[in-house]
Amino acid sequence: MKRILLAIAFVALTLGANAQINDIPRSTPEEQGVPSKALIELFDAMHNMEQTDIHSMIVMRHGKVVGEFYPAPFAPQYQHTQYSSSKTLVSLAAGIAIDENRLRLTDRVATFFPEYLPDSICTNLADMTVRDLLTMQSGIKPDWGMRAKTTEWIRTFLGKPVPNKPGEVFAYDSMVTYMISAIVQKVTGKTVLEYLKEKMFNHMGVTVVNWEESPEGINTGGWGLHIQSESLAKVGQMWLDGGVWNGKQIVSKEWIEQMSAKQANGGDYGYGYQVWMCKYPSAVRADGALGQYVIVVPEKDVVIVLTEASFTNGKPQRNLIWDNFLPQLVDEPLPASKDYQTLLAKQAAYTLEIPAGKEKSSVMKKLAGKKILVPKNKYGWKEVVFEQGADKQLLMHLTKTDGTTYTQPMGYKKWATDTIAGLPPYSINPIDWHRGLEGPFYGAACYGWEKNILNANIHYVNWVTSLYTTWEFKDGEIILSISNNYAKNKVEKFTCKVE
DSSP for 291-356? Predict the structure, then answer.
């Protein structure tokens, strides 16, 4: 009965989230001057790329979606964490505040937080402006561990040495974006997310969106946006259209132009206001760890959204777009093509790697119902009990160190999805990182038996992370190996006892 209720709840949540997907007009690629074959080549190359799991990809041209795919078990309704691509949304919030005369680029950072300043401040700190934060030229050496060490992020940031003159040295730093988020909250009385909901998201029909908060109750800014891919496509289209959505000026054209222009010598091609310049002429992008992108190409009237977990540096993915895909686009509609049906079939059939192996093993006869004790680990797993389920499913009953329990269904040659207890794994560990997020989270799993070895992959589909596990059963013990999609080539091994 419990599993029936969980299934009903899962369907209800999915249907509720569906209200804001499929909201952007769709078109055949050829109607927008895009060969279906070009999209097939792009999607196949992305999907087959080594050391990469694509979670979603949306391609828009002339304001319409011409291609999209979500390899199973991912799906359009799931939110996805954005890491540093969140920064560009902070820039949009700052731009709206500047449009409303609540903020100026020349405002001094120190003046917003007199209560957090050290007893004496250096000239460089006194001179640091909002523009210096937006261009990653604060003058402060980045401290990526700070967010995991203290609950006073503003005070700690302002208390750091400022060895470089602000505005002169590019130093990429997520805490700099956090300070912009804090300033926007200071001048508007709303968090960045609340402000963007009022000024932007509500007008776009974007309702399923969250943002991590700091221990100080401020949206983390430099990371932590949790949003659906189609909502990012809307943001990208508004960005491409000079700040306009459905005829309404959301952000001034002047700000869009400024944030999208080179303002600092960051990266290979330059950095704007929390925006990366690109190899392709006129192209700009929001860019997050593991491969989270909103790419805007005015020259081709194209918006591309990509979410993934990749160990590449992102250049192979972007080069596929610059060198292979965009050159195939034309300005006039193309004749209808039989390739379009092939594209539709492929989009529906993509799936992430299915674990190797058979449906059943004689090991389960000895193991079913027995308690497997897992040594201390960062995932919080304490006890596991396996049970053969219906419909070719294997059930993993999991007890965590905090006492919570849940069952992770695992499908054979297909994915099985259900709620998890608590939080999924995360590649970073800021204090209180779960603040601002709304559960539940979902795990989707698939398995296969190779003699006495159980292979099981788990993707946390409304997050970003995944676990790849093998359970080797021998001599009354189990060797559990776990790798993930955010620590390259790192495999953790645990010797588990069976009761």
Answer: TEEEEEEGGGTEEEEEEEEESS-SHHHHHIIIIIIGGG--SS-----THHHHHHHHHHH-BPPPPP
Structure tokens at 30: 């050829």
Say how far apart CA 211 and CA 86 lie, in whole Å.
9
CA-wise closest residue to 453 among 439, 469, 470: 470
The closest of 219, 211, 110, 216 to 153, measured between CA atoms, is 216
Helix (H) or strand (E) holding 387: strand 381-388
- What's the Cα-to-Cα distance from 223 to each of 94, 226, 293, 379, 417, rounded to whole Å? 16, 9, 13, 21, 26
Query: Which CA distances in Å does 22 have to 35, 53, 208, 396, 448?
Result: 22, 23, 14, 34, 34
How far is 133 from 182, CA to CA, in rounded Å? 12
Q: How far apart are CA 350 and CA 36, in angstroms?
A: 16
Residue 436 to residues 225, 226, 298, 425: CA-CA distances in angstroms? 10, 10, 34, 17
Q: What is the pTM of this model?
A: 0.95
pLDDT digits (tens, 9 = 90+) for 307-348: 999 999 999 999 999 999 999 999 999 999 999 999 999 999
Q: What number of other Cβ atoms are within 10 A of residue 14's Cβ?
A: 15
Dump pLDDT digits (tens) for 177-224: 999 999 999 999 999 999 999 999 999 999 999 999 999 999 999 999
d(CA 26, CA 23): 9
